[in-house]
Amino acid sequence: MNFRQLEYFLAVADAGQITAAAQQLHMAQPPLSYQLKQLEAELGVTLLHRTSSGTSLTPAGVLLRDYAQQLLDLRERADSQVRSLGQGLAGVLSVGVISSSIGAMPNAKLRTLTRHYPKVQIRLFEDNTYGLIDRLEKHLIDVAIVRTPFTAPRLASKDLKTESMVAVVPKKYDHFRGVTLRVEDLADVPLIIYRRFERLFAATFAQKGMAPFIACTCDDARTAVQWAEARMGVAVVPQSVAEQISGPQTNLRPIRYQPWRTTLKLVWPEQVTPGPLLQRFIDSY
Questions:
Q1: Which residues make Cβ contacts (< 8 Å) with residue 51, sequence separation at least 6?
Q2: Where are the domains of the chain?
Q3: Name one GO cellular component term (predicted).
Q4: For residues 278 and 259, is the Cβ–Cβ distance under 8 A?
């Protein structure tokens, strides 16, 4: 099994037809079919169901597709890293970001870095904190911006920003007496929460004997703010997200509760010595 065979296999898997894949690869169909059969023979499994209308993946083919993409991504990253080793002036840096890191990237130093070294290419991968940690552990990305709380003992880290939660309050629900809220003040309003903090919020409510109505749970803090803007409830999100995207339809009320403070962190694998390009990126924060 070689990289060329994996590239051929992925092309067929994506196209759903050997003929269409051959056209995309700028090659004839018979050599492509031969390479696929050689790959199947070497692995001892059938990877593709072949019919008159096209191809579909067998369970073994689905598994190989995931591994093949990872292997090709790793090859591309290895090639880039080796070529730029010793300089840090060129290459591709794979960076993971969470939706609630809005405002943390790009920053002024990073803009300066890419302006001075125009051959540095940033590849962004968006996921939640644990999805990005998984990518780091599989060496599919170089570095990530994630948010506490999380458990990942094998990561080196650099704190970027610690902030409080705020309530994004539509004016129809803004009957609070003060600018700053207590957790107890949220008991009687419908809440929109970012799934990242669902367990933390639930534990706090249970501890305080509260049972607020959770009107919506979503995977993106920006979505929570948008729903508050639509007057669907009160969104509870990190302060930086609320300040970046909330509009005049809502008011921001800081929540005075220490356990709900959260920190943005830059993380990378602890066992990996940062190369010049990654170190330049880390130093830009």
A1: none
A2: 3-68, 85-162+264-283, 165-260
A3: protein-DNA complex
A4: no
The secondary structure element, H or E, covering residue 132 is helix 129-137
CATH of 165-260, one of 2.40.10.10, 1.20.120.450, 3.40.190.10, 3.30.9.10: 3.40.190.10
List pLDDT tens digits, range 91-103: 788 999 998 887 6
Please state which architecture CATH assigns to domain 85-162+264-283: 3-Layer(aba) Sandwich (3.40)
Q: What is the token pair recorded at 3?
A: 């990289």
The position carrying tokens 């880039």 is 80
Q: pLDDT for 191-213, tens place per residue?
A: 999 888 999 999 999 999 999 99
In terms of Cα–Cα distance, which of 81, 59, 191 is closest to 139?
81
Given a contact cutoff of 8 angstroms between Cβ atoms, the answer to whether 197 and 270 are in contact is no
CA 9 to chain centroid, in Å, comes to: 27
> Which CA distances in Å does 259 have to 19, 36, 104, 262, 263?
58, 55, 22, 8, 11
251 Cβ contact list (under 8 Å, min separation 6): 168, 169, 171, 174
Which residues make beta-bridge pairs with 158?
A: 266
The identity of residue 6, as a single letter, is L
